[in-house]
Amino acid sequence: MLKSYIAFDLETTGLSPQEHEIIEIGALKVREGKVVDRFMEFVHPDKPITPMITNITHITNDMVAGARSCPEVIHDFLSFCEDDVLIGHNVMFDYSFVKCSAVREGLTFEKMGIDTLKIARKVHKDFESKSLGALCDYYHIENPAAHRAYYDALATAKLYQTLAHYFEPQDPKVFQPHQLQYKIKKVQPATPKQIALLERLTEQKELIPDWDAATLTRSEASRIIDRLLKS
Q1: Angle at alpha carbon of residue 30, lines to 152 and 32, rounded to 5°
Q2: Which residue in 24, 127, 138, 209 has its CB near the most CB atoms, within 10 A?
Q3: What's the CA angle centered on 82, arms 36 and 84, to 5 degrees?
Q4: Which residues lie closer than 8 Å to 164 by C-beta, 6 or more apart?
Q5: The pLDDT of residue 34
Q6: What is d(CA 2, CA 34) in angstroms, rounded to the nearest whole number?
């Protein structure tokens, strides 16, 4: 079992690290099996948090109103991580957001990692759900604030230790750190055809545009068009 590592988790405004934003980072630094430091910080997003995301994360716009910007927080988080192995549940999701944020600031973020979701898929193939919540319920790991970054990170660390205790002797390979690799995709701007359709739909429904044609991406435009067509 790895005795020194960083367990971390993020809360974000969506699923795409190119288009959505980090709103909370939580992490704990483990040395020789003991928590020696922690990182808990909200991040102020450029765009308001939607009601759907607040419903999932319980993070409101008021909670992040006084938070620092992503560039400020990312610099400190990278320093906190040092050269440690990262542990996360579906670790590539969280890693991709941090890596994209780091690259925007001209920083590098190349890490070794261990994914407790990947481990669970190997050792608990029969489980219907391998979510962090389901696994914590199965192993009686308390998580008093699920979907809040630090508490999910702490639950992930406990889950890693539990899984390693029961399964590492039989399947050591799945518990080995591996290089985390994420290729940053180029963001495609909205097409002239999408912009024209958006303008027409907005005018037809007598709405005030809540998008900026200069910065709108192709996928964002698609989502807004779908929303307007269904409304």
Answers
A1: 145
A2: 24
A3: 75
A4: 1, 2, 175
A5: 95
A6: 11
Q: E strands along the chain, which residues?
A: 5-12, 22-31, 34-44, 68-69, 86-88, 112-115, 178-179
Between the alpha carbon of residue 52 and those of residues 11, 56, 134, 184, 227, the distances in Å are: 13, 6, 22, 26, 14
The token pair at 141 is 């790991």
**One-letter amino acid of 153:** A
Q: How far apart are CA 171 and CA 219, in angstroms?
A: 41
Query: Is residue 102 very low, low, confident or very high in pLDDT (cuts 50, 70, 90)?
Result: very high
Contact 7, 160 (CB under 8 A): yes
Q: 219, 223, 225, 224: which is closest to 18 by C-alpha? A: 219
Paired sense of beta strands 86-88 and 5-12, if any: parallel
Tokens of 215: 């910065």
Both structure tokens of 218: 């192709």
| Greatest alpha-carbon span in the chain | 64
| pLDDT 10s digits, 206-226 | 888 888 888 888 888 888 998
User: For tokens 């430091």, what's the residue?
Assistant: 37
What is the distance between the alpha carbons of residues 65 and 54, in angstroms, rounded to a whole number? 14
pLDDT of amino acid 215:
85
Q: In this structure, what token pair is assigned to residue 187? A: 């963001």
Q: Decide: 7 and 27 in contact? Cβ < 8 Å.
A: yes
Whether the Cβ atoms of residue 30 and residue 115 lie closer than 8 Å to each other: no
User: Contact, 49 vs 13, CB < 8 A?
Assistant: yes
